[in-house]
Amino acid sequence: MTPDSAPAFVVEAVSEAIGRNRRRDPVLPGTGGPAGNAVLTAWTALVLLVGSLAELLTLFDVRGLISWHVAVGALLVPPALLKVASTGWRMLRYYVGSGPYLEAGPPPLVLRLLGPLVVASTLGLLGSGVLLIVLGQDRSQRPFVSLPLVSIGWLTVHQACFAVWAVVTGLHVLGRTVPALRLTVAPTESGGVPGAWSRTLLLTAVVVSAVVLAVVLVHADGSWAVGHEFEPRPAAGILLHQ
Question: Which of 7, 90, 125, 128 has the most Cβ atoms closer than 10 angstroms to its Cβ?
Fold first, then answer.
């Protein structure tokens, strides 16, 4: 398939992913409007990207690094929820007909289709991961659905969420990394977007809450940390980037 023969929605997604095309987000007083939302989303996404890569590294020895696995996963929960909230707010304002958000326009069709899958798999991964810690190792591996050919427990659910998350979020990251870097690491216009202090305070609050949650969950994972019968499988990792 050549660029000339590729479907328009594919060309649109690739052009934005490599930075050839850019959405122009209107700048409003106060919070910055769509431009401020885009900057907040980009910073949150980069935090999630770095943290998720660290979380994936713990999978090479999830038994030996279980405390790190839990801690890094917990650190990702608040920024992931903020990411869902920021992108959800942008989507809501667009679909209710807010002028500035209509002017900014929607993301490419491919990313709009991936978005719900990214959100659902991330929330499933977050929720099931925290639930594993709350339930403990024995109850987490005990099946709640037993069929002739398959048994399903909460650990299985967590692994299934990870498998879906890894695929859809990997594709999503390919489409959003360059635009996010342009808004954060190498900004051209975002430095003049109003609301910088409010975004900084919000991100600081998210970091503080993430640390508190990590401490709480690490101290609550005793059965996983001392268990010797757990057979490690690809079971975790958290990222939202839209």
Answer: 125
The model's pTM: 0.86
| Burial bucket for residue 182 (CB in 10 Å: 0-12, 13-18, 19+) | middle
- Over residues 58-84, the pLDDT tens digits come to 999 988 888 899 999 999 999 999 999
The enclosing H or E element of 205 equals helix 196-218
- 97-to-32, 61, 102, 136, 164 alpha-carbon distances in Å: 18, 49, 6, 46, 32
Beta bridge mates, 146 = 151
Q: Which of 240, 185, 177, 168 is nearest to 16 (CA)?
A: 177
Q: Exposed, middle or buried by CB within 10 Å (0-12, 13-18, 19+), for 36?
A: buried
Instruction: Quote the CA–CA distance of 51 and 76 in Å, as a whole number.
Output: 7
DSSP 8-state class, residue 106: P
- How many CB atoms sit inside 10 A of residue 37's CB? 24
